[in-house]
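Pilot study result, target chain (479 residues):
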Amino acid sequence: MKIAIIDDGVNSSSDLYVEKMEQDLVVGDNLEIFIRKDKSDRISHGTVCAAIIKKYIQNPCIISIKILDELTRKGNVNKLCRAIEWCIDNDVNIINLSNGSVYYKDFQRLRNICNRAFDKGIYIVAAKNNNNKYTIPACLPNVIGIKCWKGIFINTYFNKGYKKIQIEKNTYVGIDFLVNSVHKLNTKSGSIYITERCNSYATAYFTAIIYNVLQYIKDEFRFNIVKQNIVRNREWCNTLKSISYLKAAYILDLSKSIFTEYLFFDFKYIDNYFDFMKIYDKTFDLVIVFNKHDKNQVKKIKECIELKKEHIRSVILCKTVSNEIIKFLNKNDIMFWHEGIFKKLKNKKHKENQTPIVYFLGNKKEVIGIINEIKELFYLDGYYALKSSNYEFSYLYGFEYFPKGSKYNKYFNNISYKYSPDIILAAMDCNKIDIKDDIIIRVNKALECEIFSPKKKNSKKICTKKIKDIYKSILEYYS
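Predicted structure:
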């Protein structure tokens, strides 16, 4: 089994006990990968990670891929993506990743390459940014995200042998485990090297745990099953943090009310239960959009899933979901996501939101299309615009979703703190909005956009159908 450490290089000639690398590689500035020649005896960050892994694993097969400068520890997203791509092409089993990106323009590229690794059956164990910023890959649902834990460990859910680990119950945070990062490492000179508290060294420890679990699980790639061998909390292990990993899915739409032209993933429609039985893919993801919950409908869905459960990787449950379905998926160890996750969110107290918010009201289908176009204009001009909505199924369109009836002001505080966007574009389905200095854009039946600010003196109403005029008005308002 191969472990790749993507970092600033592993120096086997340092004072720490590190086995000779199976391969010692570096990603060049031209993105070519070659054997590393600039070796040193310095205790680099990657060397410490390798020593932690070695402490908890017997004879690990470690591949070092250097993408960061050893002194500055700086790199770029191109080298990171290239290193992960190499792991995909060379049958690596586990990737230990101490680095990631907090820059929004890197997110989609990293998401795409991590989706490829997930499809290949690679476990990526990644550290969250030490400043607690939203980090890709660590915060992706198909990556095992790690933070170090500074409190007292209460191993309520954990199997014996896995010490000093906590689970992050709030899935919205995007991290799976809170892990010990302080380790005592023997040196060749006879002293003890004690690692500091940081997310990277917690990640290395958890990489060793994943390796040891995989040693005795002779099963095909099952992300949730590996977690279950560490944590005795089946529902937590089976519940996905988000649906951003979807590349393609089959959709059983019992409501007939989703806007397929805005789905962020490729899809094939299943018109009825008989079509479901005609799916012959070896592995697939399934989206079920419920209409109502009668016993007969639930029974038929369970029967279909039962017959195809060996091939279903995950199930996305849209609209209100019965506990019977969730219990059924848990019993069969099928990964799933459902809207009820948002109702369990912990609304932590943050500073009052200072991020500008543009509220869009009116025709839902048109609003979604307009927001998508405006977001792209912001992106081209170097602004991080975050799409958010309480529209039904808006998470299928790539929006940050929050349920109707929730306290949206607290919600906007949360997402502003989590993502640090430059502006929030909010599609709202509600009768009354309490705003301060923000803009409302109302889309009428003629598909004209009326732009105004209710609480700004001398605010002029502007009506237009042109997206660029809407965008220009937003920029002028906040300039």
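One observation from the pilot: The chain has a mean pLDDT of 88. A full batch analysis is planned for the follow-on phase.
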